[in-house]
Amino acid sequence: MTLSRASIEVLSDLIENRLAIMSIGDQDDLREKITLKRALTELRGDEVPAGILQNFADIPRRGRRRKVGAAAS
């Protein structure tokens, strides 16, 4: 599915507005901000910088980690 230039501009403006008013309060907000930045980059047709993907990987997940020993037995 392709989007028209006008649709891409509208979506881009909406994402930029959301990013401008966003305040980071917890890890979920930070994940959303990084996701919005990636979406904006994709809409513009730019290459995704490696730093954005690396920052996303560094965000800790919520909840406890699975116990590997219990899963193996």
**What structural class do you assign from the helix and strand content?**
mainly alpha
Strand content: under 5%
The run of helices and strands is HHHH
What value does the Rg take, in angstroms?
A: 17 Å
Uncertain residue ranges: none
Major β-sheet annotation: none
Gap from first CA to last CA? 47 Å
Q: Please tell me the overall pLDDT.
A: 77
Number of strands: 0
What does this structure look like?
- The chain has a domain at 24-60.
- The chain is mainly α.
- It is elongated.
- It has 4 helices and no strands.
Structural features:
mainly alpha, single chain, 4 helices, elongated, 73 residues
Concise structural overview:
This protein is mainly α.
Detail the topology: elements first, then pairings.
Blueprint (H helix, E strand, L loop, with lengths): L4 H17 L5 H18 L5 H9 L9 H5 L1
Helix pairs in contact: 1-2
